[in-house]
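Service request form, structural biology core

Requester: graduate student, group of Dr. S.
Request type: structure prediction, single chain
Budget code: on file
Notes: please return the result as structure tokens.

Sequence provided:
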Amino acid sequence: MQTQTLHIRHLGRQDYESIWHAMQEYTDNRNSDSQDQLWIVEHNPVFTQGQAGKAEHILNPGDIPVIQVDRGGQVTYHGPGQLVLYPLIDIKRSKLGVRQLVNHIEQSIVDMLNQYDIAAYAKADAPGVYINERKVASLGLRIRKGCSFHGLALNVDMDLAPFQRINPCGYAGLEMVQCKALGGPQTVTEAGDKLVQTLSKILGYQDLVHHQGLKE
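Core staff response, request fulfilled:
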């Protein structure tokens, strides 16, 4: 059955803008038979500002570009050493509500970190995943034509300093933390392997098909 298979696309390290436009294009051209996909990527340094983003949350971007994008949420940072997962899912076909999809994504991160005895949790009023009031993963989605794009960013082994140039996700003084320092996954690859397992399981996919790049 179509919806039981999830196609995993391993994209390596890519500029943000090209992947964002590829997500838009895939979503715009989908039909009822299109594959559900999960894109795994690391981005070159970039700040992204959500649709309702307020300029005052960008404090001092410096030499890092700021891109206005079509997801929910405020400003965040992407850079090497951060795992980014983009679920391109027909949520209407999968009978998922938007809030339910957000909850599933957050729970998959919590479940993955629990495997490392890390007590992570989500918050009802602030999307993402937290550990001792410090944020380890950010989340922002867009739904178009009943299908999701954009997704989650999990800090694994990265330079966290650029987060000090913004109010992360619109919260002044919010401290960011990462997996490696907490005894969690030590590399983006390790985190990606584990998170694909927990996310695909919680979303109910039975078969995973792996691809290298967008075209394969």
